[in-house]
């Protein structure tokens, strides 16, 4: 149990059955009046934010969050399925919850899945993922246009800019935090 | 050795702070006020519902020098001021420190209207000393401090900013929330604002109006949405004061909060106190104003987390 005195940015609490993270926090106290703790909270499942004011004496349930190592198995309709490496237990996550991570998700990718109770609500990718280029224009030797990059489509459908010498079928390393090309995989 | 750069960079603020305190001192001394020092560690602070004292052995660190200063008034001292530290447990935020610096002044044979005039005079004098003008730049605005300042009753403020009467807000237990969320942010943007005449139940140690017993002669001073001072026409009736202290003490007990003894010597001497008015002004916030500081942490050398 947390009390209002524990409130600070980054604290994760359960409200109305959902996990919320405190994204802004301000202590106020009108002269001789009671202390008020004004907070802005973000729902960790659907991303909506809300403003709440608390008084001293109020208490909160901590959000029961757990992060587990899993691997990505497959996508079916709008759901992504992951498997716990230890227990072989499978969990599903909606496309909304997966968010931009879907651009870098390939079969068997090791990921960290954030669980709220039984529910998977977030995914953390490795910082670097190897992905195959499925479409890009050929490199014309002696090209004098001066362009130092060109668009490429990856096996996940994600498009990014790569150096001119990258060819279709090559494996490249992508930084999942920035979504940018990092280097080519040799061999 | 690693230098404390954050502390080193505060030097201009701390120099301005020292000057401001000197100017305050001169203002009151020139006005015939006697500077006093009363004990910071006391056996019994005034029991108040929403102010939490910090225990010190079996005594307490003062939450305000109010009671001792009023005992001086009762003993015939007519004009008093004090600059001292006060402690309030659990108060921490952009405008709150659990240990802060308070200016309090008291005038015999006066009421809260005289203190409004004192506030106007003090801030104009400080502005002239600190900026060479009667204006001060704070939070992206220029504030003209030359009087007259806005005077707004609490009841009018509730009607204007909440569309609800103050009495209705009290009945719904929304008074403090509306004050913080709807009213305070609006106060003191054109000129500084005195918000005055609080409902009697929010009067603490203040006198009720002779012709309006449901209203307390209390005001707060705001500038740029920041509360700077709280003032009363002081209650001088020992029986009424004891009744209020007992009610506050019982409220605290019902909430399971720290038990507080009644300040008996104060209650005994209150009968001798002349009609008087007193005011508490937060020095740290005043420095914030004159230094255009974002946070109270910027105007003290050491916020508690850095000790």
TrEMBL record, chain A:
GO MF terms, alphabetically ordered: translation elongation factor activity
Primary residence: cytoplasm
Pathway where this protein functions: Protein biosynthesis; polypeptide chain elongation
CDD domains: S1_EF-P_repeat_1, S1_EF-P_repeat_2
Pfam families: EFP, EFP_N, Elong-fact-P_C
Residues annotated as domain Translation elongation factor P/YeiP central: 67-121
Entry protein name: Elongation factor P
Automatic annotation (TrEMBL), chain B:
Ranges where the Aminoacyl-transfer RNA synthetases class-II family profile domain occurs: 14-304
Pfam families: tRNA-synt_2 (PF00152)
Keywords: ATP-binding, Ligase, Nucleotide-binding
The keyword ATP-binding is annotated on this UniProt entry: yes
Family matches, as PROSITE patterns: AA_TRNA_LIGASE_II
Keyword Glycosyltransferase recorded: no
Record InterPro entries: Aa-tRNA-synt_II (IPR004364), aa-tRNA-synth_II (IPR006195), aa-tRNA-synth_II/BPL/LPL (IPR045864), EpmA (IPR004525)
NCBIfam families registered for this protein in UniProt: genX
Protein name (Swiss-Prot/TrEMBL): EF-P lysine aminoacylase GenX
The species this protein was found in: Geotalea uraniireducens
């Amino acid at each position: 149990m947390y009390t209002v005195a524990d409130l600070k940015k980054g604290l994760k609490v359960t409200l109305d059955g959902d996990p919320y993270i405190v994204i802004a926090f301000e202590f106020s106290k009108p002269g001789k009046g009671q202390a008020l703790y004004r907070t802005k909270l973000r729902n960790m499942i659907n991303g909506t934010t809300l403003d709440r004011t608390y008084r001293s004496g109020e208490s909160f349930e901590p959000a029961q969050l757990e992060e587990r190592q899993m691997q990505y198995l497959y996508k079916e309709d709008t759901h992504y399925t992951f498997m716990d490496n230890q227990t072989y237990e499978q969990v599903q996550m909606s496309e909304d919850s997966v968010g931009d991570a879907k651009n870098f998700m390939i079969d068997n990718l090791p990921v960290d899945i954030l669980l709220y109770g039984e529910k998977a609500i977030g995914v953390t990718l490795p910082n670097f993922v190897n992905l195959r280029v499925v479409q890009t224009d050929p490199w014309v030797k002696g090209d004098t246009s001066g362009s130092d990059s060109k668009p490429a489509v990856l096996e996940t459908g994600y498009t990014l800019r790569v150096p001119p010498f990258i060819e279709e079928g090559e494996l490249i390393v992508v930084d999942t935090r920035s979504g940018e090309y990092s280097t080519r995989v040799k061999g | 050795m690693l230098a404390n750069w954050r502390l080193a960079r505060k030097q201009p603020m701390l120099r301005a702070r020292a000057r401001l305190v000197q100017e305050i001192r001169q203002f009151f001394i020139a006005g015939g006020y006697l500077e006093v020092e009363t004990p910071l560690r006391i056996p019994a602070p005034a029991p108040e519902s929403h102010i939490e004292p910090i225990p010190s052995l079996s005594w307490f660190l003062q939450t305000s020098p109010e009671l001792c200063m009023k005992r001086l008034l009762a003993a015939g001292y007519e004009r008093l001021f004090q600059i001292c530290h006060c402690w309030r447990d659990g108060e921490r935020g952009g405008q709150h420190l659990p240990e802060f610096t308070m200016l309090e002044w008291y005038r015999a044979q006066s009421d809260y209207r005289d203190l409004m005039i004192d506030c106007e005079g003090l801030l104009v004098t400080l502005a002239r000393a600190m900026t060479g003008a009667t204006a001060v730049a704070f939070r992206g605005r220029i504030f003209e401090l030359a009087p007259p300042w806005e005077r707004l009753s609490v009841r009018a403020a509730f009607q204007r900013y909440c569309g609800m009467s103050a009495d209705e807000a009290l009945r719904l237990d929304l008074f403090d929330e509306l004050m913080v969320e709807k009213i305070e942010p609006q106060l003191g943007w054109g000129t500084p604002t005195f918000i005055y005449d609080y409902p009697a139940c929010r009067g603490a140690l203040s006198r009720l109006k002779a012709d309006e017993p449901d209203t307390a002669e209390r005001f707060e001073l705001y500038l740029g949405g920041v509360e700077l001072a709280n003032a009363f026409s002081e209650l001088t009736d020992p029986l009424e004061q004891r009744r209020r202290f007992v009610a506050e003490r019982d409220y605290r007990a019902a909430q399971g909060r720290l038990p507080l003894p009644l300040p008996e010597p104060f209650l005994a001497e209150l009968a001798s106190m002349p009609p008087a008015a007193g005011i508490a002004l937060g020095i740290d916030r005043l420095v914030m104003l004159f230094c255009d500081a974002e946070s109270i942490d910027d105007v003290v050398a050491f916020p508690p987390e850095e000790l």
